[in-house]
Amino acid sequence: MTTALPPTIRPQDRSFLGEEQVAVRARLAEEVRALIDAVVLTDVPDAEIAEITGQVRALTDRLGAARLGAAPMADTPIDGLIASGMSRQLGNPVTGVLNPVAPPIPFEALPDGSVRSVFTLDEPYEGPPGLVHGGISAAIFDQVLGMTAGMSGVPGFTATLELRYRRPTPLRVPLTLKARITRREGRKCWADGEITTPDGRVTVEATAMFVTPRHLLAEEADEAQEQRTS
Ligand SMILES: CCCCCCCC(=O)SCCNC(=O)CCNC(=O)[C@H](O)C(C)(C)COP(=O)(O)OP(=O)(O)OC[C@H]1O[C@@H](n2cnc3c(N)ncnc32)[C@H](O)[C@@H]1OP(=O)(O)O
Questions:
Q1: How many whole angstroms from 199 Cα to the centroid of ligand 1?
Q2: How many DSSP H helices and E strands does the chain contain?
Q3: Local structure of 23: helix, strand or coil
Q4: Superfamily for 98-218?
Q5: Residue ID of nearest Cα to ligand 1 atom 12
Q6: Which residue has the higher pLDDT, 19 or 80?
Q7: Model confidence pTM above 0.90
Q8: Domain boundaries along the sequence of the chain
Q9: Which of 84, 97, 160, 170 is spaced 20 to 30 A from 14 at the CA atom?
């Protein structure tokens, strides 16, 4: 008997989308991302905004006419870069290509096991004027460090995440996040990383610890047992 997650959120109970389905929806998400940017920065007259609001409502109703119970997964890892279940989470708020809220952050797995992400954040991610919101940096670190841990063979939930904001992080310039594993101990894994500006200055550093949840290990053991007995 295990403490399993509710069935609706288990990856195996979700819809899996093929490459073409992902591509069509990713184009929609990209347009909506541009829409979010336009909404934040628009200066058209109020009457026009009111009219557009009705049009957006109509589009929301059309998309909502058929609705999944949970965000879908990709049936192959995005870009084939990261052999981690998270790279298939199309609705992820940091990396999900189908989530307009996600920048989305791309990943490059380097041969030494570290991860590099290069991304640019615009106005929808603003905290202090002209600068990246600290919570957005935290979300990006959470995901990138977590994927780095997953790639090292210890996929887990974030147990701790500590950030040191050294300098302001600018909007509208390419930022580089590098992440690496520093320690592994059973089902615990520590990773750290930093965000740098194009001139190589570190703006934020982070350290995190991930734990493979006991219930996931128990589920895996149950599945292995089922396979042996079937
Ligand atoms: C590929 C993956 C990419 C992931 C990117 C995104 C990551 C996320 O955003 S995850 C969401 C945010 N995190 C969460 O919601 C986690 C909530 N917490 C939990 O689910 C559980 O507490 C969890 C999974 C961390 C640990 O639970 P459980 O499996 O029962 O572990 P438990 O047996 O209590 O502890 C195992 C060990 O970890 C330690 N530990 C557990 N939690 C913590 C913590 N928060 N801080 C420090 N140590 C901890 C315990 O002390 C224990 O250590 P030891 O073995 O030395 O005694």
A1: 36
A2: 4, 8
A3: helix
A4: Hotdog Thioesterase (3.10.129.10)
A5: 158
A6: 19
A7: yes
A8: 98-218
A9: 160
